[in-house]
Amino acid sequence: MVRLTVDLIARTNNHLRNRKDETFTQYLKRVTHLNFSNKHIDCLDDLSVCRNLTVLYLYDNDIREIRSLGFLTTLTHLYLQNNCISCIESLSGLKRLEKLYLGGNYLTVIEGLEHLEELRELHIENQKIPPGEKLLFDPRTLHSLSKSLSVLNISNNNLDELKGLADLENITQLVAVDNHLTDIKDLEIVLGKWPRLWRMDLTGNPICHTPKYRDKVIVLSKALGTLIHFYHKKVFY
Question: What is the 3-state secondary structure (H, E, C) of the chain?
Answer without folding.
Answer: CEEECHHHHHHHHHHHCCCCCCCHHHHHHHCCEEECCCCCEEEECCCCCCCCCCEEECCCCCCCCCHHHHHCCCCCEEECCCCCCCCCCCCCCCCCCCEEECCCCCCCEECCCCCCCCCCEEECCCCCCCCCCCCEECHHHHHHHCCCCCEEECCCCCCCCCHHHCCCCCCCEEECCCCCCCCHHHHHHHHHHCCCCCEEECCCCHHHHCCCHHHHHHHHCCCCCEEECCCCCCCCC
